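Forwarding these from the shared drive since the link keeps breaking.
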Amino acid sequence: MNEKLTQAYERLGLPETVTREELNKRFDLLLRRRRSLNTEAEIAAYEADFQAIKFILDFRDQQEIQEAEDQRLAKYGSLAGGARKWERFMRLYKTHVIISIIAVIVLIFAGNALYNNWQHKKYLASLPPVDAKIMFIGNFGVKDEDGKMDALNQAIIGQYPEWKRVDSSMIYLPKTGEGADTLDMNYLQKAVVELAANTPDILILDEATLEWIGKQDGFQNLEPILADGKISKDDPRLKWGKVGESTEEQLYAVDITDSKFVSSLPINHNTKSIEIGVLGGDEPKEKIMQFVKHIAEEGAAQ
């Protein structure tokens, strides 16, 4: 037996077979005796007795816990020792283990994300350069159930094979209010943010959106598409007006509602008309103008 435990029993004058009930009674008597102590010697003796009985009680508590644990682990047979060590390890390092597992999972997902990102960049690098960024803004929606733009991009290239790659996007901007004659303010705010963050080369708009932004600064003058005379300046599809602070009228958009181009696109729309305009600086974007001219001439030919 533990030498310190033997000394504790001897200190209290108790046999090692004393019951827990007798120990608890002795402890209660000891606590009550504390009130009658006067001298330092009496207090010192009390403290010694107190520590002795506390040590015995703590030892027995640990012994009972150990016995209960032995009974619980008995089902593991010869592996009980390993099971005990594993449980003790988990009690001491459970938090560390969990954090380590989480760290490993994070590293795996981060590594996978980095790899996928690298693969995506590698794929994009293998593609031809983007010929134009086209934004549909208005009461439009793609027919793709997942909202992907791939089919739309391919349809645009199919109608204009001179280009090999376009990057299209779509901003839903419905009308609301009585008679549905004003743009929904919530969607309008989002549209403003998208326009500022992802400035497109070409805008394809419905009639309400054109009314909202069609005559603002930023729209290029499309008059170069009329230079060869294939499209009449009096063509009713042409949208003329003063743009921004300019005092002169310019061609800022073309109605392409009935064009072969629009009818071939995999989009849904609830609009009276569909217009196309070009964003940019003062210098005309030649290849963008050729694209608009091609679509406008389709309508003129019809």
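-- next protein --
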Amino acid sequence: MADIVLKAENREAVGKNKVNKLRQQAIVPGVVYGKDKENINVQFTSRDFEKVLSQAGTSTIIDLDLDGEKVPVLIKDYQMHPFKSQFFHVDFQAINAKEEIRVTVPVYLSGRDDIRVEPSVLVQNIDTVEVECLPMYIPQYAEVVVTEMQIGDAFTVADLDIAKDENINILLEDDEVVCSLQEPQEEIIVDEEEDNESAADVPTVDETEEKEDEE
């Protein structure tokens, strides 16, 4: 089903101490979850997983080569060390080709560097969308072309390319704004000298009290 393969092994090591020893050897623990199936504990090298993740992301089906058996899965979630480049754990979702699945895919604004109206500011309101479809129809991303946008224009979920695909159901309202093109806001520069002069003109508390005493 998939062209991207991650070589893995069944994992016997469970428990914090044993799993930590795996991580020290640059081996990543993971679990394969499947509907009406027992969870499968797996392990694989950090190097192999990093390569697969860069290719597939979390919206492309990959084959988990589990001791020679190919298991189609999605990378559902992964955890990393807070400040080291180290994978802590990976969750995979087993795929049934005949069952619809929910997947989050990135939104891609095509042509954002070639917008004809300048100066302008492109504001992206939605970075990802959740879709529901059969595995064979999972899109890698949702796209809209923004090159010809004018100031004040906005694109909604209904304008995404996958919105026209009857095999894909986007789990957002059609009128949700994906992006808009706006005029840049002028930066107000405060003259420090004038600001200091204005502050100097304001009487202090002592000066105010002296004036009241004179009156």
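The chain has four helices and 13 strands. The mean pLDDT is 89.

- D.
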